[in-house]
Specification:
single chain, alpha/beta, Rossmann fold, 2 domains, 8 helices
Length: 352
């Protein structure tokens, strides 16, 4: 009986020490995690060789050249008729989380919802393939500012308004929408995550929505509570139509349709924001950057912020989400420790 008590004490002490260590590690990680950008950012403007369009490229500055690292691509798909320069604040902040953010001016002619042709800055699916091709060339170009800095195998999409619609369309292959789709488009394996602002997947005029069969591509949606163009309820319905988690819907209180841009648009948006423009843009960029870190870089702290703790930490947002079920690290390690202890005790009992 005494030996049995001793063994129980050993198990309790070892498990206790293990759980205490794990708990201490978790607390330290939570205490030291910062939701702020990690890198300083530089940028340049180039002409895309595939399309001939101008593009702004924002990239992290490697502070330690002795240990070079590569950064995934984040393609920003613009709202209709919104110039790339209007996203400079947002794009530079997202880049600070460790991404090469590409913001092209996609100039073309396409039909509007009434059937009339319109010429201007209009995003489309083909940009996804074009940018992947372009960034492979930029990465191997010795004269490029991002030479050997780009992870060309990993892509995330950002989008605003019509650009958000395009980014969601690019995450699936089942429905091809006139004016934005590319016949024969196939979702590239590099596309791992989509996070956009003021977006919907379907006909917003008739409020008819389609199921979004996103496969293994994580989907993030951000909406402004005062959006008078996209309307938050439409974004919420799009969230409901996303077929495969992980997915998240972040509502920014007091933001309107143009809170992602450098300035509000008094002509195209009937509602004025109640959240200061710079704060709203930073909030949208922070959640975008951390969502991409969670799903493109497997950053567990960023994942925890987006799906667990960020809602309580950020007074300007409300969050709903659905994530894939994965074992908690502490629980997995605790079970492993228990198994090891059990094996050790069995070994001891054979000698007793």
């Amino acid at each position: 009986m005494k030996k049995l008590d001793t063994r129980k004490q050993l198990v309790a002490m070892t498990l206790g020490a293990t759980l205490f260590a794990l708990g201490t590690h978790t607390n330290v990680s939570a205490a030291t995690f910062s939701s702020n950008p990690l890198f300083e950012v530089n940028n340049y403007t180039t002409t895309l060789s595939v399309s001939g369009d101008a593009a702004d490229i924002y990239f992290p500055v490697n502070s330690n050249s002795a240990t070079p690292r590569k950064f995934p691509i984040a393609l920003m798909l613009q709202g209709a008729l919104v110039d790339k320069a209007d996203y400079s604040n947002y794009a530079s902040q997202v880049a600070g989380y460790g991404f090469v953010v590409v913001v092209p001016n996609n100039f073309r002619t396409a039909p509007d919802p009434t059937g009339q042709e319109i010429t201007g800055l209009i995003p489309e699916q083909q940009q996804v393939q074009n940018i992947l091709t372009e960034m492979v060339a930029e990465n191997s170009n010795a004269n490029s500012p991002v030479n050997n800095l780009v992870d060309t195998k990993t892509l995330g999409l950002l989008g605003h308004s019509l650009g958000a619609f395009v980014s969601l369309s690019a995450a699936q292959e089942e429905f091809c929408f006139p004016a934005i789709c590319t016949p024969g488009y196939q979702k590239p394996p590099e596309l791992k995550a989509v996070i956009n602002y003021a977006g919907a997947f379907g006909n917003t005029q008739t409020q008819t929505f389609l199921p979004l069969n996103n496969g293994d591509t994580a989907i993030g949606l951000i909406a402004g509570s005062r959006d008078g163009v996209g309307i938050p309820l439409i974004t919420r319905e799009t969230y409901n139509q996303v077929q495969n988690p992980p997915k998240v819907l972040i509502t920014v209180e007091g933001a309107n349709h143009y809170s992602i841009t450098n300035e509000d648009n008094l002509t195209r948006e009937p509602n004025r924001p109640t959240l200061e423009q710079s704060i709203a843009t930073e909030t949208i960029a922070r959640w975008s950057g951390l969502f991409l870190r969670a799903h493109l870089l497997n950053d567990r702290d960023a994942f925890d912020y987006v799906y667990n703790t960020g809602d309580a930490l950020d007074n300007n947002v409300s969050v709903i989400s659905e994530k894939q079920t994965i074992p908690e690290p502490s629980a997995a390690v605790a079970l492993l420790a228990a198994g090891v202890i059990s094996l050790k005790l069995r070994g001891k009992s054979k000698h007793n």
